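So, can you check these tokens?
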Amino acid sequence: GILPAAFGQDASLGYYFSRFGYFWAISDYMDWNITADYFTRGSYNLGSRFRYAKRYSYNGNLEGGYSYRKNNESVDPDFTENIQWRIRWNHNQNIDPTLRFDANLEFASGRDFYRSNVSDLSQNLMQDIYLSATLFKSWDESGNSLSLSYRRRQNLQTGNISESLPSANFSMSQKYPFRSETTSATNLKWFEMIGYRLTSQLQNTRNKTAGDLKIRGGIQHNININAS
């Protein structure tokens, strides 16, 4: 259905009508809406949100915003105009009992978008955008697990970016190399109680400060050996 607009006046932007749009319930599993703001001095905002869900499987939403802002008249000494945008995607999915994917991604042109278009006070005051995506896989038979992830932090004031792309972690469950499958757990020799565990980490970091990009990567392995 149609979303009714709100009317008002802004000292810098002129008269406006805001949040006018349309909501569409596509099915029992998804819906979509689009909204727009218009100001008589030429500014406008566009926003959209798409939500989806399937019980016990996945859920998420995709949001986007675009803003063209003109403050005051073109002949005024404090006249300004700029374009701001934001894209946000949140997704959670159990692909199967041993495989899961989670993503919370957000990209924005800068802090001005939140100040001008977001009514949530906590988002208006935030200095950084944090985002992440993780794919986790486990193997029930062996007890091993693997995770692949992407993490990013963007400072809205300076534009500096710090990210980890990619980051991988592998974990091997406890192994007993001198123990056979037919060995009884109640009648073990001393050397059959020697075990080890392996963890491995790969990480590639990218830091962009004042336009200067620095990249650093590495791999680390840890082996723990123990015996009773």
